[in-house]
## 1
Amino acid sequence: MKSSRHLEINHPKRRVSFSAWGLAIAIVLGVYGAVGSTTVHAQATSGKIFGWAPAGETITARSTSGVNRHSKVNAAGRYTIGSLPMGVYTVALEKDGNAVDTRSKIKLAAGGGAEVDFACPHDQCAESANN
């Protein structure tokens, strides 16, 4: 009779290596996690300028750091200029390429927005049905 020190125990062998699918899933999850955090960071460091203005005109936002963006006012009299870096802006209403009204020292904070409205003829910014 053998002593217990010499007993052989047969354990099933465990799989030690990684499967290709497991590795692929880990890579995909890592990439999507990194992209998601980048998107959140980008949204947290930018803002937007929006408001009312005469339909069909152009709004230009210029920052003190050199950012220059344009937006066309829609038929309802609304405009939005998004994805603007934080900073101080001058917003201009342009008609035929010339600034006809401006608002200065518009401050954008991270993740925020600023409403900048311009006067509309007869307080009606939307296009009339007769146009």
## 2
Amino acid sequence: MSPSAAELLSPLFLVAIISIIVVHMVVCYLVLDMIDQQVDSNDEISRMDAYDSGLSVKELQGISCFYLEGQANSSMCVICLDSLCEAGLCRSFPPCNHVFHAQCLDPWLAKKTTCPTCRTPLRP
């Protein structure tokens, strides 16, 4: 009394269908999880961009400029890697007082609000 081929095929067919459904659900879960992680990552990047969006023109004008007086030429602007000379217009980064050429520091501060030398933030 051996079972017929149709009787054996039914349980195998049912197991195959259930297996396909389970694999499909696992793949869907993994894809949705990956999409969710990308959205979270983009939100974090947006928050960082909003925090580190740079200074406005008005804020840049609030940082005073000066000419170096009596300092040796051994001082260097770390943005352009040129020496700071007495004839050059300079700015001092307020929190840490590092000195840079004004024409070098202004574009930097328009993009970032950290010191180019020590990464001290301008805003707390």
## 3
Amino acid sequence: MDEATMTARQQADGATMVDVRGSLDATTVDTLRTTLLDVLHRDRPRLMTLDLTLVTFMDSKGIALLVGVHQAAREQATRFVVRNPSEFVHRQLRITGLTGLFGLPSTDPAPSWRI
């Protein structure tokens, strides 16, 4: 799969927004996990939002990454949510029953194309 990158920025209200791009799979999750946990523990935001608009693929390792970071955030009283997952990523989270955990609707988002 391709490389994954992330950009984190702290908001004025104390929240942290993290944009993730690429694939969340066995070749990328370890680096992303370390970086996300570093941001979480260093900045201690009241809210951490992961924007997955540009995530093209996610396997079980990617799902485990999200669950693990969610747990770490909860342990330090940080709210952790996922926003804008691609249709593929949303489907993965819906099938595994995790949409509610990440603050997502349980139905697939509207397709990005229209006829």
